[in-house]
DNA sequence: GAAAATGGTCAAGCAGCTTGACTACTTGAC
DNA sequence: GTCAAGTAGTCAAGCTGCTTGACCATTTTC
C-alpha cells in the first residue's frame, strides 16, 4: 500500500467518524437533550455501575480536573449525580440519573439511525464486518477527540 | 442491528481514527517537524496548486478567520507562503514551501507506518476493503475534528 | 503513627476556535 | 463609467474546554 493511500485511509476514517459523531449529536439534540459529543462517551463509562471522577478522566483521556468539570456540567444539567463512594471516603461515585439514562437511549437511537444510512449503502453484513474489523484494530485505550 | 451496536461502531470508529491521527502526528514530530494534526489536512488542500484562505477554511470546516490564523502559523513555521493571487487582487494564493512538501511526505510515511500495523492484523486486502468501504460512506464535506 | 500516595476541587492560564468590525478589491446593474 | 453590493483577508475581542499548579481530606504503606 502506497504512502498516499495510508493518508487517504486516515482521511476517510476521520471523515466517517466525524460525520457519525455529528449526526448522533444532532439526533440527541433533536430529541430534546442539551448535550455535546463527549457526554456520550462519559455515559458509556458511567452507565453500568457509575465511576469516580478519576476513572472517568482515564476513560476519556483527560485530566481528572477536566473530568471533574465535565461531571459538574452533567450534574448541573441533571444527567448525573454525585454519591458518596461506598468504599472510599475520599472518592465520590458518579452515577446517571433517570434523565441521564434517557439521554443515553436517545444517543443509541440516533446512532442506529445514522448507521442505517450506511447499511443502505453497504448492506448490513458489510457494516457488521466493518465494525468487527475496526474493533480488532481499535486501541483499547481512552476515547479521545480525533484531533 | 441493535441500537447499542450502532453506538459501539461509533466508539471503535472514533478510537481507530483517533489512534491513527495521533500515531501519524507522533511520527511527523519524530521526523523533526513541528506540527499538529490539522496541518496534514491543510496540506492536502494546499498541495496540488495552492488555495486561498477562504477555500482552506471551507475544506477544514472552520471560519476564514480560523483558516487565516492557521496559515499565519504555517507561514511562521516555514511550511507555506502567501503569494499574490494571479486572478484576484483581493485574494492570496497560499502554497507549500519545500519544507511544507517535506512535512507532507513525512506525514505520508508516518501514516503508512501506522497502517502497516493494521495490515499485520487484518491483512492488506481487508485494510484496502476497509478503505474502500469507508470511502463509499464518508461524507465529501469538510474534514473536521471528531468532537 | 508518620510519611507518602490518592481522590477531588479551586484557580489561573492557554490554545484554538468564534463573532464582529473593518479595509481593499471585484462584480453587477444601470 | 459609476456606484452599490458582494467577497477576500485581517485585526480584535471573547468563549470553551482543556491544562498545570496548589491545596485539603482520606487512604495506604512502612
What's the gist of this structure?
Chain A has 147 residues and is mainly α. Chain A has helices spanning 3-30, 37-46, 53-60, 64-76, 98-122, 124-137, and strands at residues 80-84, 92-96.
How would you explain this protein's 3D organization?
Two copies of one chain form a homodimer. By secondary structure, chain A is mainly alpha-helical. Chain A has one domain (3-137): Arc Repressor Mutant, subunit A, CATH 1.10.10. The first copy, chain A, has helices spanning 3-30, 37-46, 53-60, 64-76, 98-122, 124-137, and strands at residues 80-84, 92-96. Chain A has six helices and two strands. At the A-B interface, helix 1, helix 2, helix 5 and helix 6 of A face helix 1, helix 2, helix 5 and helix 6 of B. Chain A binds a DNA duplex (30 and 30 nucleotides) through residues 38, 52-54, 62-66, 68-70, 72, 85, 88-92.
* Terminal residue distance of chain A: 24 Å
Assembly form of the protein = homodimer
Radius of gyration of chain A: 17 Å
Question: Low-confidence spans of chain A: pLDDT under 50, at least 5 residues?
Answer: none
CATH fold assignment of chain A = Arc Repressor Mutant, subunit A
Alpha-beta classification of chain A: mainly alpha
- Let me know the CATH homologous superfamily of chain A: Winged helix-like DNA-binding domain superfamily/Winged helix DNA-binding domain
- Overall shape of chain A: globular
The CATH top-level class label of chain A? Mainly Alpha
- SSE arrangement of chain A, N to C: HHHHEEHH
Strand order of the largest sheet of chain A: 1-2
The total domain count of chain A is: 1
Major pleated sheet of chain A: 2 strands, antiparallel
Largest interface: A-B, 62 and 62 residues
**Average of per-residue pLDDT values of chain A:** 92
Proportion of beta-strand residues of chain A: 5-15%
Helix content of chain A: 55-70%
Q: How many β-strand runs of chain A?
A: 2
Amino acid at each position: 500500500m502506497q504512502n498516499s493511500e495510508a493518508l487517504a485511509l486516515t482521511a476517510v476514517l476521520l471523515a466517517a467518524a466525524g460525520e457519525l459523531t455529528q449526526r448522533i449529536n444532532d439526533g440527541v439534540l433533536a430529541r430534546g437533550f442539551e448535550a455535546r459529543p463527549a457526554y456520550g462517551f462519559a455515559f458509556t463509562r458511567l452507565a453500568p455501575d457509575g465511576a469516580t471522577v478519576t476513572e472517568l478522566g482515564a476513560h476519556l483521556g483527560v485530566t481528572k480536573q477536566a473530568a471533574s468539570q465535565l461531571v459538574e456540567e452533567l450534574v448541573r444539567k441533571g444527567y448525573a449525580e454525585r454519591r458518596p463512594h461506598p468504599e472510599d471516603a475520599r472518592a465520590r461515585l458518579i452515577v446517571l440519573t433517570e434523565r441521564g439514562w434517557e439521554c443515553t437511549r436517545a444517543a443509541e437511537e440516533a446512532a442506529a439511525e445514522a448507521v442505517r444510512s450506511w447499511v443502505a449503502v453497504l448492506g448490513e453484513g458489510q457494516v457488521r464486518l466493518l465494525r468487527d474489523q475496526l474493533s480488532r484494530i481499535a486501541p483499547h485505550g481512552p476515547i479521545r477527540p480525533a484531533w
